[in-house]
Amino acid sequence: MTDSSLKGTGASAGSGPRPSTPARHRLDGLFCPESIAVAGVVPTPGTVPYDIFYNILASGYRGTVYPVAPGKRSICAVRAYRYVVDIPDEVEQAVIVFPANVVERALKQCGEKGVKSVIVISAGFREVGPKGAERELKLKEICQEYGIAMVGPNCLGLINTDPNVQLNASFARKMPDHGRIAFLSQSGALCTAVLDYAREKGIGFSKFVSFGNKAGVTEIELFEYLHQDPQTDVILLYLEELRDGRALIEMARRVTRGEGAKPILAIKSGRTPQGADAASSHTGSLAGEDAICDAVFEEAGIIRVNSIEELFNSAIMYAYQPLPQGDRLAIVTNAGGPGVMATDAAVRLGLTIPRFDSTTTERLRKALPAAANMKNPVDVIGDARADRYTAALGAVLDDPNVDQALVILTPQSMTDIESIARGICAIHRETAKPIACSFMGAADVQPGIDLLQQARIPHYILPEWACAAMTDVQRMRQWRRQSLDEVERVPVDETAARAIIDAAPPGYLPEDQALAVLEAYGLPVPRYKLCRTADEAVAFAEEIGYPVVLRVVSPQVVHKSEVKGVTLNLTKADSVLGAFERMLRQLRELAPEAELHGMLVRPMIPDGYEVILGAERDPVFGPTLMFGLGGIYVSLFKDVTFGLAPISRATASRMVRRVTAYRLLEGARGGPAADVASIEESLVRLGQLVADFQRITELDVNPLIALAADKGNAVADVRIRLSE
Amino acid sequence: MDRSEVEQRVVKVTCKVLGVDPEMVEPESHFVFDLGAESTQSIELVAAFEEEFGIEMDEDAALAVDTVGGAVDFIGALVE
Q1: How far away is chain B from the Cα of A77, in angstroms, using its nearest Cα?
Q2: CB contacts, 8 Å: B36 with chain A
Q3: Which of A83, A85, A101 to mutate to test the interface with B (most CBs of B within 10 A)?
Q4: How high is the pLDDT of residue A16?
Q5: Going from the N-terminus, what domains does chain B have, and what CATH number goes with each?
Q6: ipTM attached to this prediction
Q7: What is the pTM of this model?
Q8: Dihedrals phi, psi of A108, to nearest 5 degrees
Q9: What is the pLDDT of residue A465?
Q10: Given this model, what pLDDT does residue A206 score?
């Protein structure tokens, strides 16, 4: 940007940016504005307000920019205005860099000026406490009043590398290269680190957005925009706080499936204050935001990764290579050890190392020395030069049993690294199958890596990283092929359940009522009766047949074991009589204040697998469901899965199959297979129950006894907690 | 010192420190939003007011004053 490019009443470098899409989208004003006012600019280099303005000029922005700097005639030789409303031309976007205490006034002026797109860089809002939260609320109100799409506050800004726009409205040090990856981040500081990292790796971006406190535009709206952005192939997200899990699922599914599908990869950090410790139920203590977030991402088709390295490792695989047709990987290496390590990693991560067909083996035999390994992984051996690498890579990629290839190179004295890289690039231009490379080392291999990066062939320092990236791509491929069924209501007796729940005070429902609620929703509740006297208990036991179970029912008794309130396996009338009287006596001794509703009598449930079905009302996600195997699997290994209620049958099936201990339910180690379909049915019904009744804050069916295949399952214990 | 004198001297100091024309300065003028004060200039303003009026001001309380009129009230109370 030079002064000679300035014209009119602001600084302008061209005929104005053109939006990336034919129809003007609500967010085009943020990404491709015709004109920008920077409100709160100061003339001091090295300050955020100055640097933002300077970066817009220096990025070669194609529109017109106006500094709003009270008391200043000009900034960077561009005529300045006292207020946004003083600018004589139309202004499409404003970037507010004033201190927090005057942002509200600046935003209001933007509204009065008719500015519909605003980026609030300033910090000092919700992130600093209640006073800041109050300020932020006012910004939201102004945005609502004037129909403003606002990014921020408390953010780094926004970058659009589109050559027709060239906008760096941020205080990042440098404009990134133009690329096909969009990066969205809730953390501004991380953005600058990512930009630096990406520059070193030769990774470019299409759009780069730091959305800070997301008081206006959120990641969900940005997903929608980037889905239709022809310059974006992959969306990366760094998220600290997820507010609307359901809306995220809905939008992410639209983005990641169907026509024009684009992968979303995300890092999610941070936890809500409503952590596991605050929850008293079993489900609550296991849930926590992070575990539910996993479930949300899984349902949304968002690939969750754990580090920036992994994020970009996978992103370049998606962005630079075609989607493979399957999971079969061929490996070509000049070093046995790394080849074996890569094979181990690939298999561990779920890729397949196929056998080559005879034609491929024959081609390899002709091209390679006898000492080479013609099987997968192909070892072209240490003294291999470009001719062997290209012959082997060409052969394996032509094999109908191979979907993708990984080339591993270690730099030995005769290894012609650059020639090999050029040979790979030539094959890459001709093949429709994805290729990844791992030139292991640092200094010697760098020229080869540079050639690969220029050709957009993903390169990884370690072959295991290449395998992990290919696995992530595979996950996306599977996600797109996976069927997603709709949530359908199952027939239930909602009226009966409502009669009980509406009449109950806050707190735990007595067991007989909790069972009646489950019964109304079609869960497999064994016959039961609340008996007031020992004689009544005996009569009911005689009616349903022995053996039976006696359970104390009292609103004051939440944990029955504390009052010795359960007696199992009573096989005759005398036993029932004795147990009834003993349990009554113990209750009076151990909990004299407890009001006894009676003893619940039900049959002993046959042996089966103990599973836990739980639900809780999460402040962020609403009703959530949990599934796991009981006993140590849940308490020690926390081997549980989550879903947002209500759930479809497909989701129930995924929840059950995703626990590590699922193989036990299938009948591993000679045990009987459980009636999994019946568990799934119970999960669907439980999901409907907690979705229907806002007052249910916690619900544990623990355990549900999963019986052998086709025998169904049975609720052995339940706890339902109601709110006000 | 009467209020009008305090006001006159506050405006003089403000114009000098922030480099703005006197006609821009009104009692309701916000140092940052209307007169373009940078964060470092707010501290300079406090020091310049102390020197002009021969007073010492509590820095936190003085920095919380954000308009010219507010500064006149704040300083006026100290010089009475």
Answers
A1: 17
A2: 42, 69-72
A3: A101
A4: 60
A5: 3-79 (1.10.1200.10)
A6: 0.92
A7: 0.85
A8: -60, -40
A9: 96
A10: 97
